[in-house]
Amino acid sequence: MDLETLLATYDRRVPRYTSYPTAPQFSPAVDAGRLRGWLGALADDTPLSLYLHVPFCAELCWFCGCHTTVAQRPEPLARYAAALLDEIDLLAGAIGRSLPVRHIHWGGGTPTALSPAWMIAIASRLRARFAQAPDAEVAVEVDPRTLTDAAADAMAAIGVTRASLGVQDFDPVVQAAVHRHQSFAVTEAAAQRLRARGIGGINLDLIYGLPHQTEAGVAETVARALSLGPDRVAVFGYAHVPWLKRHQKLLDEAALPGPPARFAQRAAAERVILAAGYEAVGLDHYALPEDSLAVAARAGRVRRNFQGYTTDTAPVLLGLGASSIGVLPDGYVQNETAIPAWHAALRDGRLPIARGVVLTAEDRLRRAVIEQVMCGGEVDLPAIAARHGMAADTLLDAGPALRAQAADGLIRWDGARLKVTARGRPFVRAVASAFDAYLRPDAVRHAAAI
């Protein structure tokens, strides 16, 4: 099958599989009361990860798919930070004991939009209410354009070990098209500012598939980004979903690259990264061989959650902030997405849960299979089913899709064991979707697989 036919067949709208079931399956049937029950059932030694969502930016990038808004005054940020302190107390009170924390991730939006004093206050409250491990990974997403010395000082003060710098693309034409102006010099200065304060873990986030991007331009951006010496690089395909994110309608759709061009841009980025000595991790992450993510990938210990590929093995991820999602052994919970509704719940002394989903035994099995496909590219279906106390026949509905994928060279499949081929790796989301019992062929919510 030639590439054009392959793309026409498999470059369809499928989830990113940072969860399973995915967010469209969440419902109000899971509420704050359900979360309290789940938290109360946790063992006293259950390790936690914490995610703090800060939905504010200095300006809106037109490609953005995050839950965020523009804040031009300090007052909304201060109100939000104060409410985060209240949510920390509510959540810790619902747990009723100080559980160990291994990972903390500040995401957004732009977490450093909060003042340094508020970042320190929030981090201090987390330490007071949870048993944060001395070697916990503390990661913060950073917009290099707004990173100040004071913000970098605050990050060092709260023990940040890793920073993810948004780059996207260095081409001024592309930057103008997506309303994000960021020079290489600004990005370099941000990395230097962080390293000077002992924050040595640097991730760079890049995007292909934006308006006016070309294969050569993407390769040049990647090469310049790698000259900064990041430990990890993530290369995401732009998700064009203007029916969900209305500001994306500001982009010139005629300038968006089509599927073959997107595929070529992804391949060009990967060639440059692999030639520089990085190792591929899952679908879209790359790490230096000595980095903990690459080490975990070689050992088959990489996990996938809402932050992408991670070394985090904690069974519980608790989300704080508007729109954040938590994961527990029993299911998923999501906070109110609208900031006013989130504030209102906290003012009333309520955990701001809006929706979620209860996991069934079959959900857990399918989630484990999908995660193994997404992370390691291979899975033994009878073995993983046995570990879940179920028969592999539970997954028989995936058979027709898997046989077609094998015939098209995306996977090797003998009826029991599946392995994604080099040809199939760019299509791994489509491979994983064979095990998604909820996905409908006419789904439009999701972005294209490539």
Weakly predicted, low-confidence segments: none
Fraction of residues in H or I helices: 25-40%
Query: The biggest beta sheet, please?
Result: 9 strands, mixed
Q: In what range is the share of β-strand residues?
A: 15-25%
Name the CATH architecture of the largest domain: Alpha-Beta Barrel
Structural class: alpha/beta
Q: What is the general shape?
A: globular
Please give the order of strands in the largest beta sheet.
9-10-8-7-6-5-4-1-13
- For this structure, the CATH topology of the largest domain is TIM Barrel
What is the CA-atom radius of gyration, in angstroms?
21 Å
Count of individual helical segments: 15
What number is the mean pLDDT?
96
Let me know the number of strands. 19
Q: Gap between N and C termini, in Å?
A: 17 Å
Query: What's the structural domain tally?
Result: 2
CATH classification, class level of the largest domain:
Alpha Beta
Could you walk me through the main structural features you see in this protein, from its secondary elements to its overall organization?
This protein is of the alpha/beta class. It folds into two domains: 1-18 and 360-450, Orthogonal Bundle (Arc Repressor Mutant, subunit A), CATH 1.10.10.920; 22-326, Alpha-Beta Barrel (TIM Barrel), CATH 3.20.20. Helices cover 36% and strands 21% of the residues. It contains 15 helices and 19 strands. The chain has helices at residues 3-10, 32-40, 74-95, 116-129, 149-157, 172-178, 184-195, 215-226, 259-275, 292-298, 339-347, 361-376, 381-387, 399-407, 428-432, and strands at 48-54, 56-57, 69-70, 100-108, 131-142, 162-168, 201-208, 232-237, 279-281, 285-287, 303-305, 308-310, 316-320, 325-328, 331-335, 353-358, 378-380, 411-413, 417-420. It has a nine-stranded mixed beta sheet, with helices on both faces. It has a three-stranded antiparallel beta sheet with strand order 14-15-16, covered by helices on one side. Strands 17-19-18 form a three-stranded antiparallel beta sheet. Helix 3 runs parallel beside helix 4 (116-129), helix 4 (116-129) runs parallel beside helix 5 and helix 8 (215-226) packs parallel to helix 9 (259-275). It is globular. The two termini are 17 Å apart.
